[in-house]
Amino acid sequence: MSLMTINLKVWRQKNAETPGKFEDYKLDGVSEHMSFLEMLDVLNENLIKEGKDPVEFDYDCREGICGSCNMVINGRAHGPKHKTAACQLHMRTYNDGDTIVIEPPRAAAFPIIKDLVVDRSAFDRIIEAGGYISVKTGAAPEANLIPVPQDTSNEAFDYATCIGCGGCVAACPNSSAALFTGAKIAHLNSLPQGQPERDKRTVAMVDQMAKEGFGDCSNYAECEAVCPVGISISSIAAMRRDYIKAIF
Amino acid sequence: MPSLIEAFQSQVGRKILTGLTGFLLVFFIIFHLAGNLAIFGEPDAMNSYSQFLHDLGPLLWVARIGLLLIFVIHAYIGISIWINKRKARPQQYKVYSSKGGPSRQGLSSRSMAFTGVVLLIFVVAHINTFALGDMDTVLIDGRETHDIKSLVIDTFQNPIYAFGYTIVMILLGAHLGHGIWSAFTSLTLRSKKASATIYTIGVVVAVLLAVGFLFIPLYIYFGGGCDAALIHCN
User: Fold this and answer.
1) CB neighbour list of residue A49: distance below 8 Å, 6 or more residues apart
2) Residue B122 belongs to some domain of the structure
3) Does any domain span residue B102?
4) A178, A218, A247 ranked by CB distance to B81: nearest
5) What CATH number is given to the structural domain containing B45?
6) Are the CB atoms for B192 and B200 separated by under 8 Å?
7) How many C-beta atoms surround the C-beta of residue A45 within 10 A?
8) Which domains occur in chain A, in start order?
9) Is residue B95 part of a domain?
């Protein structure tokens, strides 16, 4: 097993009000089998032993399904690999002596809480604006009561895989949230259960996206390139199509 | 539900308007290029075309005002998207790069605001040179008409105009390289399967239009105007 020395340049920021800066760290004994977050764990253990403040970063599942770990690694959201969340990135991607620059997702709509941790509750408010369906309360309905064609189910599921990490916003040159909002709208609008609120949902979520301070979509498709679950920009097209239908 | 005016101010509405006006502007420049290429036709072809346009009378003014409106909307939204982008990310990344793959990020897409502003300034200068410039008159079908052909040939003897136009037309090609694909995407005329094909068609159309436009000033400059083989003067 080969061990590497990795040079890190990490964004440190005490809170949203205090200006941040980059700190350089040299980390020895990094195993190629470590995940990127495990490498940061080692860094933090070292910092704690030295009596310094550890680097704050978000994580939960560490298996690529929760979307917490969004960070910008050498200028790319979630690092260099396609369809891979930062937690699923492994140090074997890097070579001994490499320098890795780690920054938080940068967007006015995602204020920095500390270091690499940002407040993504703007996404929650977009969901609150219309990312739900009406259901009758009471006993659970029979699962097959509403027939859903397989193609529709597959398409809706593709959009439903969005884990809300915000990598799309981090990578977009305009800091647009069109991929996230598009995926959520397209997921619910493509299913029969999503039809009653279809028009209201589309308009409300699009409006909320702008209110949160995300930029406009310029069709760079960089969002699709960094998305850890590979959501297609077809979702943005679906959002636009449904928006037109809602207006006319 | 929002009114139409409100809808077109939303992020989705703005994008649809940008795509729609962009498409209309592409159609306009295709017609414009067709008109320009008349310089290689019969000696009177270009001036006859100019006379035909002027004979449209009020209809020509409707077209002019419509075109101006389309252009202003396109430019206004484009600039406001750029301003919004600055607001949406006040602190830039120290390191930033594209992840490649399905990304359409490149020189063309990243320079849309720059190429757009250059084109905006260019259009003002261009109208000043060719629509408002001093022109002689010639007789076409026994009627006096502006001699736009001579003005074009004289103007492009000047290297500043010949090369200036060439550079701007390259920038037009760059703008359309992303713009045509983006307009298709904004107007939702896309599918996962057709995406790459539409992008390629957009780039080919952009290159053809840019080459078509920049060929004329360069040919006039290097070919010596009326002495050039493809240009027939009276």
Assistant:
1) none
2) yes
3) no
4) A218
5) 1.20.1300.10
6) no
7) 11
8) 3-103 (3.10.20.30), 121-247 (1.10.1060.10)
9) no
Domain that holds residue B146: 10-88+111-227
Looking at residue B193, its pLDDT comes to 81
Of A172-186, B135-149, B218-232, highest mean pLDDT:
A172-186
| Amino acid at site B118 | V
Q: How far is the CA of A183 from the CAs of A161, B125, B145, B177, B193, in angstroms?
A: 9, 44, 58, 27, 18
Question: pLDDT exceeding 70 applies to what percent of chain A?
Answer: 100
User: Considering only residues 83 to 102 of chain B, which have any Cβ-Cβ distance to chain A shorter than 8 Å?
Assistant: 84-85, 87-102
Whole-number Å distance between alpha carbons of A218 and B109: 8
Q: Cα separations (Å) of A246 from A54, A204, B103, B187?
A: 49, 11, 29, 15
Assess: ipTM above 0.90.
yes
Residues 30-59 of A with CB under 8 A from B: none
| B111-135 burial code (b ≥16 CB/10 A, e <16) | bbbebbebbeebeeeeeeeeeeeeb
Residue-wise pLDDT for B175-218, tens only, equals: 999 999 999 999 988 777 888 899 999 999 999 999 999 999 99
User: Is residue B24 one of the residues assigned to a domain?
Assistant: yes
Q: What is the spatial distance between Cα A33 and Cα A36, in angstroms, rounded to a whole number?
A: 9
Average pLDDT over residues A59-70: 95
**Å between A108 CA and nearest CA of chain B:** 5
Best B99, B103, B110 member to test A by mutation, with max A CBs in 10 Å, is: B99
pTM: 0.94
User: What share of chain B in percent tops pLDDT 90?
Assistant: 79
Backbone angles phi, psi at A25, to 5 degrees: -135, 145
Q: What residue of B is the nearest CA neighbor of A218?
A: B182
Q: Inter-chain contact B185–A74, Cβ cutoff 8 Å?
A: no
**Nearest CA-CA distance, residue A141 and chain B, Å:** 31
Nearest CB among B12, B103, B110 relative to A225 is that of B103
What is the least distance, in Å, from the CA of B193 to any CA of chain A? Answer: 10
User: Which residues from chain A sit within 8 angstroms of residue B6, using beta carbons?
Assistant: none
From chain A, pick out residues whose CB is under 8 angstroms from the CB of B182.
Answer: 218-219
Mean pLDDT of A56-76: 96
C-alpha–C-alpha distance, residues A225 and B189, integer Å: 20
Chain B residues with CB-CB distance to A203 below 8 A: 1-2, 7, 10
Count the domains in chain B.
1
What is the pLDDT, as a whole number, of residue B131? 86
